[in-house]
Amino acid sequence: MALSKRLVDCGCDERLSLAVLDHLAGRSQIVACMSCGRLAFGEAMVNEPQPYDVQFLGYQRVALGEALEAWLGAWPRFVEVGGERVLLGAGERFLDWNAMQLAIGTAPRGWGRERLLATGVPEGHAPDGLPKVLRRFAEIWVALRWNDATPVAELKNAETRFQGPNHLAREEMTRRGV
Ligand SMILES: [Zn+2]
Q1: What's the CA-to-centroid distance between 101 and ligand 1, angstroms?
Q2: Other beta carbons within 10 Å of 62
Q3: Average pLDDT in the 94-114 region?
């Protein structure tokens, strides 16, 4: 199958493609264009003839289907600035890179329950067929609905989910003082 040099091949400025919600395991990526809104999910294919000699070959895109694309696309996008994350809303659009930099410069820092909810998350739970590497999206969605009645054991279990809601679990346990 043909590989593409860009994950989102919409023709807009490549720098306007941002990762959605969180880093993924391995070489998988999910990104969205902040100009036209197009979303793409796939894996960077590389050739490693010897250790530390990694040659990027291109992206292998994976089709998600309409329902999953809409649900995943409703999560915030993020950039890292000076070691801190900045979230941008799924519906924000920028004409060019400078406009996006201005917005990033004035946006609040941080990645946690409060920032995620303020930036906007999908209303309903994940549609069927979520690829395994994207399962954290569903786990984070559930974690955002934790409340005082959520058992500590559930939080402790979630804290071990490094490909999931571990950060939100620590945040909630700190809030409760457990
Ligand atoms: Zn675009």
Answers
A1: 16
A2: 14
A3: 96
